[in-house]
Amino acid sequence: MKIIAVGMNYASHNKELHHTLELTEPTIFMKSDSSLLKDGKPFFIPDFSSEVHYETEIVVKIDRLGKNIAERFAHRYYQEITVGIDFTARDLQRELRAKGLPWELSKAFDNSAAIGTFIPLPEAGGINDISFHLDINGECAQHGNTADMLFPVDRIVSYVSRFFTLKIGDLIYTGTPAGVGPVRIGDHLEGYIGNRKLLDFHVR
Prior knowledge:
By secondary structure, the protein is of the alpha+beta class. About 15% of the residues lie in helices and about 35% in strands. It is built from four helices and 15 strands. Strands 1, 2, 3, 5, 6, 8, 9 and 12 form an eight-stranded mixed sheet that branches. Strand 14 and strand 15 form a beta hairpin. The longest helix is centred in the C-terminal third of the chain and has 11 residues. The chain is globular, with a radius of gyration of 16 Å.
């Protein structure tokens, strides 16, 4: 099982982080299998970062083997989605970027990919118009809609399949909108697609 993630896929998020790149293709990075945090288990803030940020995302589960998938056929390769959190050690990421180094250490550490309960796509609506949000301690902290993606899901699936064979069970984190921020010990995070809560856990 691979965890594939897309960076800088919402213009609003790029603006808040002062990214000025003109993107012509999706920005792809990977997370390790030990990054996965599921079943409502708590997220423990790691000792190597003092600034861990939440990034709320729609997550797609691949359910067919595929390679070099044409974009017009990409919708055939996933049937379930959920909401997840791409945790980022922002201070470490800035340090690595400043040195021109890869930044997987800030993105792919253990338990950095929280994942909610998957639902059939028809229950969420059309893939290009899905509203999602994150509540922290009962208050909305971040919200977005897949309509605002720079690269829609089918384009991402097609693009990634040029480089990696997609296998059943692979997960694609599709990018985060504006509104990211730090988590603190004691925070209660709840992730929603529409009004349906699919993710619920605490920070320790």
